[in-house]
Structure formats: C-alpha cells, structure tokens
Amino acid sequence: xxxxxxxxxxxxxxxxxxxxxxxxxxxxxMRENLFSSPLNIVLTVLGVGAVVYIVMHIAPWMxxxxxxxxxLSECREIIQARYGEGVTGACWALIRDRWxxxxxxxxxxxxxxxxxxxxxxxLAAIAPVLFDALPRRVLWFTLVxxxxxxxxxxxxxxxxxxxxxxxFVISYVAxxxxxxxxxxxxxxxxxxxxxxxxxxxxxxxxxDAAQSVxxxxxxxxxxxxxxxxILAFTIGFTGIAFSLPLGVMLALGRQSDMFxxxxxxxxxxxxxxxxxxxxxxxxxxxxxNYFLPPGTDFDIILxxxxxxxxxxxxxxxxxxxxxLAALPRGQYEAADALGLDYWKAQRLIIMPQALKIxxxxxxxxxxxxxxxxxxxxxxxLLDPLKGITDAVRASTDWKGVYWEPYIFVGAIFFVxxxxxxxxxxxxERKLKTDHR
Amino acid sequence: MAVITDEPKxxxxxxxxxxxxxxxxxxxxxxxxxxxxxxAAWLIDNxxxxxxxxxxxIDFSFLGNRAGxxxxxxxxxxxxxxxxARATLVGxxxxxxxxxxxxxxxxxxxxxxxxxxxSKNWVVARLxxxxxxIFRNVPLLLWxxxxxxxxxxxxxxxxxxxxxxxxxxxxxxxxxxFTNRYxxxxxxxxxxxxxxxxxxxxxxxxxxxxxxGALVGGFLINRAIVRRATKIQEATxxxxxxxxxxxxxxxxxxxxxxxxxxxxxxxxxxQGFNFTGGLQVSNSLVALWLxxxxxxxxxxxxxxxxxIxxxxRGQSEAAFALGLRPGRTMNLVILPQALRVIIPxxxxxxxxxxxNSSLAIAVGYMDLRGTLGGITLNQTGRGLEAMMLxxxxxxxxxxxxxxxxxxxxxxxxxxxx
Lengths: 436, 417
Fold this sequence. Notes:
The structure holds two protein chains of two kinds. Chain A is mainly alpha-helical.
C-alpha cells in the first residue's frame, strides 16, 4: 500500500521582516556615528554644546541686524526701539552704505564700469584655462587680457598696452626671420633680445607717436585711488598669473645639474622663504628707490606686485620641486631614450606629471597669495580688510563699528579662497589617471 | 681588409660651445652668471649713486645710540636710555617668545583637531572641518584684528571685577582675569631669587638657568640609569628595577631647585581699580598668540590628517595580525610612519608662524619689526641698514628653525640601505 502524504513545499520566499527599530534608520545612524562609545558620547555632547553656544551667542545678534540706517547711532536707536533697552545687534547698514568703498576704494565713482568690465573680462579670460571644455581659441583672449585689464583699470592711452603687446609680436617675427638664416640658437637669442630692446627704447616713443596720430585714451586713474577688493584682485590675480611660470623656472633651476644656476636658484628661494612678506613689502615701498637710477619713480602697486610675485614664486618653486622629485627616475630616462631634448622632455613628459602632482600645493600657495594681499595695508595701500575699514571707521557716521566690516570682508575672502580650494580638488579628480 | 677611418677631428671649434652638450652647460652658466652679475652691479651702482646724492654711506653705528623710546613688554632689562641694539634684542626676544608659544599651542590644537577630524563621530568631525576651512580660507590679518577687537572691545575693564555685585568674574578657579587692557595670570615667584648675571650684552636669568639645568641634568641622569639597566639586561638577562631611580632622577633635582628658590605661585588679585600680583600679559601678545595659534593649527590639523591617512590600512591590519594591541599599534606602527609624512610640512608651518608673527604690527606688539623695523627705523632714518639687518635676523631665525627641525626629521626618516 502506498502511503499518501502531502508534502508542503513553499515555493515563494517570505518577505524579510523589518529590522529592529534600533538597527535601522536615523537611530542606527546615531548609534553608530554619535554614541558608539563613552568617549564618543562625551565628544558628541561637547560638540553639540559648542555649536549651540556659538550659535546662541552670534545668531541673535546677526538676526537683529539693521539694514537701513545712515549712521551707527541711528542703527543702535532702531535696535533699541525694536528689541528694548540694552539689546545689541549687527548694523549691516554699514555695508549697504559703504559697499562701493569696499569694492572700489577711492576709484572715481563715475568710472566704476571699468573695474567691473575688467572683472567680467577676467572671468572670461580665465574660464578657458580652468575648464578645457571651452573652445581653445578663447585662449588668445586670455593672452591679450593683461593688456586689456591694465588699460581698463589704469586708463590712459590705449597705445601703451598695445605697444607692450607688440613686443611679443616682434619677438615672434624676429625668431621667424632669423631661424632659416642663422639657426635655432641665434633665433632664440633674437627672440629674447628684440622685444627687450623694443620695450626699453622704442615702445615709449612709438606709443606717443601713435597717440598723437590716433588719440584713443581713457581717463587716467592713479594707483593711490585704488583700494578695496579691486586692489586685492589686481594684486592677487597678477601675482598668480606671473608667479607660476617664474616658480616653475626656479624649480627647474633648483633641479638643474648646472652648478651656478642651481646655487643661484637655491639662494634666491631660501632667501625669499626665510623672510616675512611684510619685510619684502617694506623694502618695496621704502628701499626700492635706492636701487633704481636716481629720479625714477615707480608705481607703488607695481612694486607690490613684483614683491608678491617673487614671494609666491619661491613657494611655488618648492612645491613644484616636490612634484619633480616625486616623479620616478624612469620617466626622465624614458624621455632621454626617446631622444627628446631638455625642453621637449620637460614640456611633454616631466611637467604635465609633476604639475599634476603639485596641484594642491600650487593652489594653496595661490590662496595664501590672495590672502596676503591684505598685507599691503602696511605700505599705505587701502586693502579691503584694514585700510578701507579704518577709513570707514574714521568717519563720524561709523565711528565705533567693529564686527560687521570684518564679517563682510572675511565672507568675501572665504568665498573666493574656498572656491579655489574646491576647484583644485575638482582638477585633481579630473586629472587622476591611476586606477586605485 | 681593415677600414681606416679618419680620426675624429681633434681640436675645438667655437660652435661646440653651443652645439656640443659637453660644453653647452658651461656656456649657459657663464651667460647666466654674467647676466646676474651685471644686474647686481647695476643695482649696487644705483645704490651707491643714490647714497652719494643723499650724502651718506651705509653705517650701522646708529645701533650704539640711545634708543629713547619705551617698550611695553621686554624679557630683558630695557629702559628708554638703552641703545638701539638693545631695543633690537628686546624685539628679537619678543618675536621668539610669541613664535615659541604659538608653535607649542598650535601643535597641540592642530594635532587634536586633525585627529578629531578623522573621528567617526559625525558631529565632531564636521565641527573640525568647519573650523579648519574657516580659518584656512580667511586672511590671518583678519583673525588677528578680530581677536584683538574681542579683547579690547568686548572684555570688561579691570574695575568691572570690583565690588560685591561685580559685573565680571575671573575664570579658571578665580586665577585668570581677562580685561580689556591686559590678561592677569598666576605666575611663579621665587623668594630667594638668584637674580641676573650680566654676560656682556646678554643678561642671564639665573633662576631660569637653574631650572633648565635641573631638568636637563635629571634627564641625562635618567638616560644613564636606563642605559645601565639595558647593559645589565643584555649581560645577565634580567633587568634591574629602575622606576624609582628614574622618578628620583627626573623629578628630584627640579623639586630641589624649586624648594631652594622658595617657589610659590602668585595669583592676581584686585587691589583698587587694578589687578596686582601674578603676571599681566598685554592683550596684544595674547591676541596675536591666539590668532597665530588658531590659524596655524588649522593647517597643522590638515597635515596631521593627511599624514595619518597616508598610512595604508594594511599597516594597522598587519600590526593587529601580529597581535599588537591598538595602543601599541599606534605607537609602534602608525605614528612612526605618519611622523615621517607629517614632520616636513610641520616644519614649514612653524616657519610660517614665525614669519607671520611680524603681523604684530597690526596690534602694536613690539616684536622685531616693531622695534628695529619700526621705531628705530623711523627715528634714525636708517631704512636701508635697518631693513637689511631685519631681513638678516629673520633669515637666521628661519634657517636655525629649519636646521634644527631637519636634524629631527633625519632621525625619524626612513633608513634605507
């Protein structure tokens, strides 16, 4: 007899039951991230306590702020009337009242369009450098931009920057002419020598002559009228643009086998890195006239820019040297084996890799340079942080205001510096080629 | 049949200076040297001509003249009758003081912040990230000015601590008072002070010398004890008990010195409208110190974080596989390797802090730039000499710091064979 038994086989899976409430969702996250051990609990409590303390002390003051008022005392009266006796609050009206000064210093107000235009064009000029998705032809504008920016900011005749640019054209033409006749070496010498001679002796008269024939000029603005953030940007971006090539050259000099070049680079780098920027700026403002032919007067912003460029270049040289040293020896040997000469090897093999390694260091040097532009206040220029703030505070309207200008200026610096550091992270990610 | 080729042409052609790689580097170097020398000659020629126009030479004798100004804080004896050289020395010591205090505090805060930023605790890690980003992305000058403003504007005057219902109270168990003019802190006083020993231009504080001597002596004795114990252990296999000798050697001399000097702690107390006793530290020093500390600590935090991150996980896993406990893993495996990554950038942060201390100008702290590069320069009109001396001193300080730290760096460096 056959036993009949019905076996029951379930042919679909049971739905998983929900995890215990302590093992899911925010509770799990909190248990793991905030309260995983006694030490962690203490840290969490301390951390939250610190945040609460800071926010409780600052937020009400900021939120009670007044945006529309003519003077500090008016601000205080409004706050007293609104929130009662003895209550303090921020007086943002200061920024509303004086923002032009913070941005433009004492630049003539009817000419504000010029720095604004220069700033917008600067963004257009650096965009193709920053993002390679943009058309490469825009880079021509980037190369011309320094002259355009100079003309817009300082004004004067258009022919001075044009003749300065002409030097590069002359250099190119000279090289092209000499090359087939006398070979590469002489062509290089011609390419270096002709523009120098042009700038030294011919560019000035040529600019004057051109101006008398076709007068195109903007109203001139003196360097002393610069101030606030246009000063910081002028110094900062010129410094960034010129310190990178100089820094790379110094780094190559320091890595060089040539004894004299090497020792000169080392001496220069170590000297610049050994003294504070402030002393270099003082040298620029007090002593530079000693070292120039008697009677020369040199624009103060230009002096400061030169010092800032030298200062940043020494730091960049050290960063790039680190990148060069980090490259495996095989890369240099491979470049030699391919028969590349020194400059081709640097341009095609070494530098792309070394600069990629040094991006974080280079960008943080740039950030440091931009922040250091505030130090120009000590040589009498009106930087946004102390120069303009002191000027604003000297007026009877805003005597006694302390925190608001610092917060405002600090926030703007933060935005730009933080932006730069984020960009360097983006660049690092984009250029990453290893497969880790 | 042997092929006879022409011998390579011996002799030297002028073109080889450029086209032959053997000679080209010499050519380039000579050209560079020539250009640099020409540039230097031009600068020096201009300088001499300018000085001739002004009718003066380079002269450092102003350093021997009477300074005639007061310095609010000096570590060595100084009056306005002292010389400019003495004022310079005061400035150097003030620079070194704030740099030293800043380096110590920045290291402590920075290491703490860097480790906490790596913590698994979400709140603390975020908080430290915010701290680091805010301090790194805003100019140091702003922090100095803000902290100084906090001290001078937001803190109470000394007389606010007065009376039954005072508006302000002292902190840290009634020992420290923050006022808008100075910070009063407790200070060690010696009843039987040894005084100062004059050694030419430098004065030596004998109390400090005795304390340092006792510390170093104790350390050396302790090292001898440990060496002897190791030697006995190597010879016999048994290590003699040394912990009480070590404690005695390390702490005995210093305690003896303190007792002999009659040491007691003098806490500040309110007398009338001002605090007396203890030490009154000027707010410019405290603000500068705090700002330098917090700013540099943000950088150090990043250095520490990246240093620890640079050690691959395999290292700690291998250490655990060997059976090392977490504490010993940290001490013996992670830290020695992380330090190698951390030390070089840390050195440059110390250097940066020292150089940044020249921003003391913003708060009126009389550092080297304030004395030699400030009042002395303006009073004597010797800008060239003062700036040259100023740069030279900063350069020496920088080179000494980097030299000392490089010695340490070499001792922890990877020993490759």
